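Hey, can you fold this?
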Amino acid sequence: MGSANLSQDTLAEQLLELAIKSGAEVAEVYQSRSLSRPVFFEANRLKQLETSQSEGTALRLWRNGCPGLAVAYGSVDPQVMVKKALALSQLNQPETVELNSSSGKSYPDLGESVPVQKLIDWGKEAIAIVRDVYPDVLCTSDWECDVENTRLINSKGLDCHYTDTTLSCYMAAEWVRGDDFLSVADGQTQRNELNPDKVAHQILQRLNWAQENVYTPSGRLPVLFTSKAADMLWGTVQAALNGKQVLEKASPWAERLGQPIVAPTLTLYQDPQAGPYSCPFDDEGNPSKSLIFIENGILRHFYSDRTTGRQLNTGSTGNGFRPGLGSYPTPGLFNFLIQPGTASLQELIQDMDEGLIVDQILGESGGISGDFSINIDLGYLVKKGQIIGRVKDTMIAGNVYTALKQITKIGGDADWNGPCYTPSLIVEGLSTTGKNS
């Protein structure tokens, strides 16, 4: 299921030709095909194997400067699709046509598929490692190989396509001790190969830390967010860097380019070549590019699609993505990286006199406002550089923008949490409350 499959498919050319013949000035076709083969384990045993396929086509055209968008899943009737897009264009106001012309670039396929048996073997290996130490634990996991095929072609000569093969896994270990229930989870997303040993030992480390339950101190404490939990800070940052939010003056950083906005230890960027979320081009056909958003605490760039870039007079940064097949491109990120430090997670812990480790959370950050109040799903109390046990029924609260100025240490243990590559970090002075306090 390589990208050649879509490039050899003539449906896109048929749609473009028919759209132009029917009165459209310009047209664009976006095609996506995916094949997923997940393997599921439940209660320590292989439960089921699945194969799922999906195929979608989006036609966007402009007639008399007015846009129309039609979407179809599975088989497509070109006549019906063009007719629907033209009808919708009559309901819209004229707009600037934002289409890329031919770039002359070709893009290699990314990643390699693995057989289902390999996924099964990885799952069995990870479960065996955990249960060898904790035989009473119940493990649930899924291991998956996803192949996604993308093609974007328009009437101005653009034709770009590639296939992205990604491997991912998620594993949770449930440990019941009397009326105490503990769930520890971890996962990976990679290309070419997964590491079940690493996933299993991450879970074992957390189970070892949770041997004892301890009381939560109340007040303002240093909080160490592991690489798994630190992602809750970055959602707000990504929203504040969005060019659309800048245009609407919703971002508190809209007028702060060139100024320090966070701790000087922070450098945040995107890299189209990095990790399993690399991306050769956006959904408008612009080649994706390396871009530093914040450098040593100083705001350098926002990200934008073609429309937003034109309105900001910055041009596109190669970040025009469709939230769904039936959506217009809007500013979005393919990956987001936080430059790691050098300290190991253990060294960060040893540097804490008293504080909390947050490893899993319930709820989300407060969006672009930055305010958050979250329950700790899995956390630990540190005293004099040692983990003394697990905390329960505990909340932390604060504001992301304030917290980013209070980061005192950044770890060297960066890992992918979805498309965000983040290390562990310590934030000073977050408000902490627990039921026992």
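Oh, and this one too while you're at it.
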Amino acid sequence: MDTDTATVEWTDTRGRPGARGAGRRFGAWCAGLLFAGVSVVVGCRVADSDGITPVPQLLAFLPWLLVPTGAGLLLTLLARWWTGAVWGVALLGLLAWFIEPYGTTGEPTGPPVAEVRVLTSNVEFGRGTDALIAAVRREKPDLVFVQECEYSCDAALRRALAAHYPHREAVEGGGSEGSVILSAFPLEPAPGVPGTMGMPGAVADVRGHAVRLQLAHPMPPLPDQVGLWREELGVLRDAAAGADGTPVVLAGDFNASQDHAAFRRILDTGLRDAARLAGDDRTATWPARTAPAFGVQIDHVLVSEEFAAHDARFLDLADTDHRALVVDLTLHGAG
């Protein structure tokens, strides 16, 4: 390339920057926009805060922020914007750090006293009831937590499953408000958690050992209801903290993942995510139509330290936007 060719390549006849320089600036500008958006979300994660809309909604998909961050890093390299490249690498490192599982682990110290299988399912306004009944008959769980079980769902569960699950606690309601706990173990009534949607509670007699059961179904973080979502997760956190040494199973559709600060507050009480204990902490449960390739795990079974988790399975049920979760637990006695 001679001097004249280089001049044509980098500047026009009036001495203004040419196409290559403009392209680099545009690439750097696009990378900066990508990094700025990701930085807001990651910054809230660093600050242990869910922020305001749209941060809570984006936090649910935190691992997927690797995609725009990677694209931005590529643009910085093409644009030779080295400060931006450092920015991108820092974001990638933070995302990789926060993608790691959150919460405590460890095996119970006492002797095993009972095996317990738990199934939780959001049946989407009762539409997935028939698929849930088939799954319950196939999986044979000891405890079943059902969210969005409206009146017809509640009646169908009574007809189909009462023989094997004679014990139940429910909050009746239409649409998304109804919820049911079914149990093969004897149940005693216990205060549930107040909320927009039903969240019943009970105490199960598991082979002579009392276990506190609580269904979770707080409001989702809709753009105009983030405060209510945070408040209802806080009430669940208070319920978990008030168990007073009784073994706990807290299960349902939390409308939150481990990347939400309000959900981590619940884990900070000492409860453990059974799917995480079984090695499936990032397996998506919603939306079912794109899971497991794309989605977020918002359906959880949380257990106290008296439980060990051996297996977690995610079931695709027809006519609902959530996958069901089945976990196999072992209850341990005092060490």
